[in-house]
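Journal club prep — side note

Before the paper discussion, L.F. wants everyone to see what a predicted structure for a comparable chain looks like in token form. Sequence:
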Amino acid sequence: MKKALFLLGADSFEQIYGDEQAAEIGRLVETSPAPLLRDVEIILSGWGAPVMDAAFLNAAPRLEAVFYGAGSVRGFVTDAFWDRGIVLSSAWAMNAVPVAEFTLAQILLALKRTWPHALSIVRGGLEGRKRFPVPGAYGTTVGIISLGAVGRKVCELLKPFDLHVLAYDPFVDDAVFEQLGARRVGLDELFERCDVVSLHAPNLPSTRGMIAGAHFERMKPDATFINTARGDVIREREMADVLRRRPDLWAILDVLANNDRGEDPDIYALPNVVITPHIAGSMGRECLRMGKAMVDELRRYLASEPLRWAITRERLAVMA
């Protein structure tokens, strides 16, 4: 049997793998007693993974595959890792599921103007509550920015609803738009026509700051913007300026710029902004979905079958 090592935070191990998945892994590879790093052939990891740089890899000369039971691998992979030709698989597609589900919930709540109504009661009581225009979830239009794993899943989840879906992604073929039931439009048109705009673009040098204040200025009256991607994709100060001038617009932000600290300190006080603490991704039992995916990938790897969720250097260049 190949020698394998769990290498992640203690809390992450319990969240992602737990006893059941760990037992299954133990039937596939040798994990106990834990082998020395120099003997390890396979690493099973997750949040808390160490940076796998040249020094780390020199200490693990037999390492051939890493299975990462979480989303983005950017925090630990290095050029030295890719140069060694180590196989890498990640649960990125599994982590996209709860993000898409959270987004669907927020889209439907936004179409009912749930947050404005609820917060008007919190701030003014039943006597001071306000009535806001409600687009509703019939014949209205939702815009999806970027058709990566999350954006595509959101489109799939929207199919049962009587909504029009517009999408922006210059790197995806028309066939994908057709399959998802989304109409391809430019970014300006998407902001102009949609009752709800949901951002799912990865945080890359090419996307950083791609959503500017001018886009928010184009939004139709009473529209809502949702961000479950990364805060740095937005020019946050420009967005905040528009939201101050246009109280009819609302923003639901699960992420902020500057590592979720925000660029504009006043954004927390804006009455038309709802901020959640980066909770869209896998939490609680949702994390076990990611661990199971990596157990399945490990099984494929040992059977010399193609991996479903493999990541290469080239693929990572366009991923979150």
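L.F.'s comment for the group: The mean pLDDT is 95. Keep this in mind when we get to the figures.
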